[in-house]
User: What shape does this take?
Amino acid sequence: MKMKLSGFFAFALLSISIMSFGLTGAVNAQVLPLSVSTESSTYTTGNSIEISGSIQNLVEYEQPVVLMIVSPDGNIVTIQQISPDSSGNYSATVKAGGTMNSSGEYEIRAQYGAQKITSTFSFISGDAPDKSTPEPMATPTPEPMATPTPEPVAEPTPEPVVEQVVNCGPGTESVDGICQVVKTTTQESEEEGGGCLIATAAYGSEMSPQVQMLREIRDNQLMNTESGSAFMGTFNSVYYSFSPAIADMERQSPMFKEIVKVGLTPMLSSLAIMENANSESEVLGLGLSVIALNLGMYIAAPALIGIKVHQQIKSRK
Assistant: This one.
C-alpha cells in the first residue's frame, strides 16, 4: 500500500513539473506590443544611429510613432515622428553628434498612442580625451646621403589663366565653378532638434507659414542668445512631455484640430514681435512682454469676462 502511495505522489509531482515548464515557455513566447532597438550598442561622433522597431496592433487611423532621444542628464536631444508601414515596422536614422555632445548612456523613448517602451545605447564623444598611453617608438638614425647637384631647369612661361565667371541664381552660390544650394541656419537646426508638433498637426505641414515663423524665431532670435537658449531648454522638457498626445488628438478629430488652430492664432500674432529682437537685452525684454501679453489674452481676459457675466446674472436675480 505504501509503495502505491509513493508511486502516485511521484507521478503527481512529475505532472506538475511538466505543466509549469509549459506555462513558462508560453509566457516567454509572448511578443511585446511595441518594440524599439538600435543596430549597435555603442556609437561615436559622426556615426549613423539606426533605430528600428515594430508595432503588433496598428490603429485604424494613421498615427505616427514618436521617437525621443534623452541625454544622461535628462535633456531631450532630438524628437521625431515616424509613420509605420502596413506591417507595423518603422525605422529612423539619427546622426551622432551636434546636440549629442556628452559621453554616457542615452535613452531612446518610443511612444505609439498609449503604448510606450524604452531602450538605451552608449555614446562616446569625439571630444573625449584618449586615455591610452602611446608606446615609445625608437627614432631611427638617418643615414647620410650625398646631396646631388641640381641641374638648371628652365622655368616655363606661365600661360594667362582666364577666370571663368559663373552666374548663380537666388538661393545658390558658386563653389569651384558649380552652383550649389545655400544651406541656411534653419535647415541646420532642423537636423539637430525637433519641430513644433502641435502647430504642425494643426496646419497640416512643417512648411506652412505659421510653422516656419515659429522655427525662424527659435533659430534666429532665441537660440542665438544665452537667455533664449536657457528658455528653450526648459521649454522643450515641458512641451515634449504632452505635445505628442495633443498632436494625435488633432489627427483623430478635425473639429478639435480647428479649435486648436483658432486658439493658436492670437499667440502667433504676439510672437511676431520677437522677429525684431536681435540682441540679448531685446530678446529678454520682448520675450517677457510676449509672455505677459499671452497671459493676459489666455487667462486674465477670460477670467474678467467670466466675472462680469457672473455679476450680470447675479444682479438680475
Notes: The first helix runs from residue 2 to 28. Confidence is low (pLDDT under 50) at residues 20-30, 183-193.
